[in-house]
Amino acid sequence: MSRRTALHLPPWLAHALRSQRGPVPWSAVTRGALSAGPLLLVAVQAGRTSLGVVAAIAAMLAGINDRPGSRRASVKRLGVPALGGALGLVIGTYAGQETGAVVLTVILTVVGLVAGGISAIGPVASAAGTQLLVGSAVGAGMPLPETGWERALAFLAGAGWLLGLRLVLPTPGSLTGDFRFDGERNAVAGVYDAVAELLDAVGGPDAIRRRAALTAALDHAQDALTGPRLRRYASSSTERRLHAQYAAALPLAEAATALAWAGEALSERASEGPRRLAAAVRGNTHTGPLPAPSRSAPALRALDDALLHAAEVFDQGRGSDLHTRTRTVRDRLRSAFGTAGREYGLRVALCFGPARRSPRPCTRASGTGSTTTGTGCRPPPSSWSSPTWGPWPRAC
């Protein structure tokens, strides 16, 4: 009798093939629709179609990094990769025009080595490394009449256009209060929602996953609140209030984590308070009466105290500066030139540089296609990828 073998897909592949359901990000859809088209239209009308193509490519690449979050964090998430792409465009243009095939291959191999090394620093650095590779490949093979610095300026203009849309356009449905901080407001509210979901999952099999989701929500909120700023401290009352609401969520997260470790199921009333706090953050309203859980256990008493402290903070709206741990330049260089950075940089260099050298005779433009394909297939380093799915889902 033949045994039937069931085909089990890897978790990362099953997630990519699974139908995803969720709210449509209409703000991102609007920015995507306004990114490349208007740039091409203006360039064609001005008789500079080639520069319009470069600007449109930059806007589309910036759209890949246009992810949910605060407007302040989007400056670094979109701006730093754009600088990498402009630098790669200059390197590729002058290397393609002034050198031969062998020297160009060596230069692109070195660019791949550097891009792979800096990708080990983090997600933003990895996006910058990707655009550095794409820019160098496009600059080396795309025949354009403009010089390298003109192409770089057009590239920065295209990325700056999408960044301007990200900073100026309000998010639909987020016009409550100051819409400039809708990303920060959603991130802080997500922390309170994660606390409520963890309290609901206490004592069940889903508690470990909910605890990991709470950690991710805290990281996301801190990144949203600590983006680049012109002033050293929070300058508006809305921003200071969000800082205070985020700080008030930390004791709640600690108490919820302690209850999760205890493993005793809680009543539904325990999670009702954090959910009301999340609604107050999103709506920029008062909390109203909060239900207090029972104080039969030390962890429940800590949760009750944290809930009362959060209610007091929501009423006062006073906040202090966030306690953040910044990475120094030495730490970033250690990540780039460490073992992971060297290994990954060598892998990218061996994929990117030789892709310019085809085994058959080809034109410079077709060589650019194979080089860009090799760029798009590179996964991010495993040092910051998903621990469950591995490094490939982000590449997919």
Derived from helix and strand composition plus strand pairing, the structural class reads: mainly alpha
Question: What is the straight-line distance between the termini?
Answer: 39 Å
Query: What does the main sheet amount to?
Result: none
Rg result: 25 Å
The best one-word shape is elongated
Return the domain count.
2
Order of helices and strands: HHHHHHHHHHHHHHHHH
Uncertain segments of ≥5 residues (pLDDT<50)? Answer: 359-374, 376-396
Mean pLDDT figure: 75
Strand content: under 5%
Query: How many extended strands?
Result: 0
**How many helical elements?**
17
Query: Which bin fits the share of residues in helices?
Result: 55-70%
